[in-house]
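User: Please predict the structure of the protein below. I'd like the answer in structure-token form so I can feed it into my own downstream comparison script.

Assistant: Understood. Taking the following sequence of 228 residues as input:
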Amino acid sequence: MRHADHRRYLAGDLCGGRCGAVGADALLAGQRAAFALTRPPGHHAARDYCGGYCFFNNAAIAAQHLRQNGARRVAVLDVDYHHGNGTQDIFYRRSDVLFLSIHGHPRTEYPFFLGFADECGEGEGLDYNVNYPLAAGSDVDSWFAALELACGRIGRFAPDALVISLGVDAFVGDPISKFALQSEDFLRLGERLGRLGIPALFCLEGGYAVEPIGMNAVNVLTAFESSI
């Protein structure tokens, strides 16, 4: 990548981080939901490294903004096909932000070195990091069983706000995913998140089947909105 192109890419990601903070402000102002259309994605950006096209962690920026401006507890749920290793790294030693991720098992999927089920947090953050790694080829029922476990944990945590790292690359037609969600399954996802009854900010993450990205993201948002 040429230097000038790289600067434009970074500028776009800085805007993504700000977009997440603006979405967080909408929740703080009393909105029940907001959507941050962030590109590039952010959940592989950690405290001191970047990866997976991610330079600034939009969801983590939003969660921290919420904490600094009145939210006592925040949950971050990552439903991207790839583990949100950067978000895990940022909040791994904290109990005020609960991080949960449903993703392809790191034995075979990026980022490979993080995302295992025994990574539960450290120090004050012990038991506030929850990973649900699923084997490549896992069916829709297995995915939604993990979602139900995650929703139960979020409910017990009782956060003031929920940030969703909304990757839609769990779609069956995604070229780098080995899950099987159909477009209508994203309606089911949005409806279940809406039933949590928690103000929510959706930050767009991955999705590489280009044409269905919009439909799948809109399905989540539409079903969420209709269920609150």
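That's the full token string. The first strand starts at residue 33 and ends at 36.
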